[in-house]
Specification:
Herpes Virus-1; 4 helices; 38% helix; zinc-finger
Length: 183
C-alpha cells in the first residue's frame, strides 16, 4: 500500500482534475494552490528556505520511493541485496580458491626441498684435506678465531669452496612441518 499524498497545508488529496503536488527540500508536500499562496523559496510550514520539486511519473526513483509502501520497498531492496550478496560471495570463493591453490603449490615445493636436504644430509661425501693449511686446530673455514690465536693462522688457503658435507654440517634443518601449516 502506497503512502497517500496530501498537501501539508490544506490537507487535500489528488483528485480530478488533479492539482500538481510538489515536494520541498525540507520534506513537506504542497498542492500547487497552496504553493502559490506562500513566499517563493520559503516553506509554508517551517518557514525555512527551500527548493521545490514537482511530483510526477518522471520524478527520480529515489524520490518516488519516499511514497511507496514499505512492503514494496522491502521486496525491491531485498532482491537487490541478494544479487549483490551472491555476486560478492562468488568473487570471495574465487579468490579463496586461488590462494588455496597457491598454498598447496608452495607446500609441495617446501616438501620436495626438505626431502632433498634430508637426502643430502644422509650422504656423507669423503672429506677433502687441504695440504696448505697453517693451523690444524680448526677445520671449519667459517669459524671465528679466538683472541688467543694468531688471526693469520686461522684461515685456510683453499683454492676452492668448502665441501658439501662441511657446509651441511653447519646447517640445521627441521624436517618436521610447522604446526601452523596443514599437511
Amino acid at each position: 500500500m502506497a503512502v497517500p499524498v496530501f498537501c501539508n497545508s490544506c490537507l487535500c488529496e489528488p483528485r480530478n482534475p488533479t492539482p500538481l503536488f510538489s515536494l520541498t527540500s525540507c520534506g513537506h508536500v504542497f498542492c500547487e494552490i497552496c504553493l502559490q499562496k506562500g513566499k517563493k523559496d520559503e516553506c509554508l510550514i517551517c518557514k525555512t528556505a527551500c527548493r521545490t520539486l514537482v511530483l510526477s511519473k518522471e520524478t527520480s526513483p529515489d524520490i518516488q520511493s519516499l511514497f511507496m509502501g514499505v512492503e514494496v520497498l522491502c521486496k525491491k531492496y531485498s532482491k537487490e541485496i541478494s544479487q549483490v550478496s551472491e555476486f560478492q560471495e562468488k568473487h570471495r570463493k574465487h579468490l579463496l580458491a586461488y590462494h588455496k591453490q597457491k598454498i598447496a603449490k608452495l607446500e609441495e615445493s617446501l616438501k620436495k626441498v626438505t626431502q632433498q636436504m634430508q637426502q643430502i644430509q644422509c650422504m656423507k661425501l669423503p672429506e677433502k684435506t687441504t695440504p696448505l693449511q697453517f693451523s690444524s686446530a680448526s677445520r671449519n673455514p667459517f669459524s671465528i678465531p679466538s683472541r688467543k690465536q694468531n688471526v693469520s693462522s686461522s684461515y685456510y688457503l683453499h683454492s676452492s669452496r668448502p665441501s658439501t658435507s662441511e657446509t651441511m654440517e653447519a646447517m640445521e634443518i627441521d624436517p618436521v612441518p610447522s604446526p601452523m601449516r596443514k599437511v
